[in-house]
Design a protein that fits this description.
Helix content is 80%, strand content 9%. The chain has helices spanning 2-20, 39-123, 131-137, and strands at residues 24-29, 32-38. Strand 1 (24-29) and strand 2 form a beta hairpin.
């Protein structure tokens, strides 16, 4: 609504300016001369040319910003995918670690049992003669 009110006020101001400046002027552009252009048309043309130039430059800036943002979005997307892959690898390795921890505890229990049996075997006297005693008696 404020834009509409501003546009109406500017239009009224320009209309007042146009009624006061109706005298013709000559416009020289390069080798060309355009005669008897009313001053208000010259002002309006300059204003429109300035607005068009500002719009064009703004559009170029917006396109450049859009391309930069799009490139950064692509980079963020790739980084997110890599993180997801690495998270999956970490989860798989944690699963393997748990499996190996269980296997390790099982092997440690087996080793403990083997050591106990070995110690029991060393404590018992041997019923069979060893090789050197067999040679002595023969």
């Amino acid at each position: 609504m404020i834009i509409l009110i501003t546009a109406v006020l500017l239009s009224l101001g320009f209309a007042y300016l146009a009624t006061q400046n109706t005298t013709g002027v000559t416009l020289f552009a390069g080798g060309y001369a355009i005669e008897s252009i009313p001053v208000y048309l010259l002002i309006l043309g300059s204003l429109l040319l300035g607005l068009f130039t500002a719009w064009f430059l703004s559009t170029i800036s917006s396109v450049a910003s859009f391309m930069t943002i799009r490139k950064k979005d692509g980079t963020i997307h790739k980084a997110t995918q890599e993180l997801e892959k690495k998270d999956a690898i970490i989860l798989a390795l944690r699963g393997q670690l748990e499996h190996f921890a269980i296997e390790n505890s099982t092997l440690e229990e087996s080793l403990t049992k083997i050591k106990e049996k070995t110690q029991e075997t060393k404590k018992r006297p041997s019923l069979t003669p060893d090789f050197s005693s067999t040679l002595r008696h023969a």
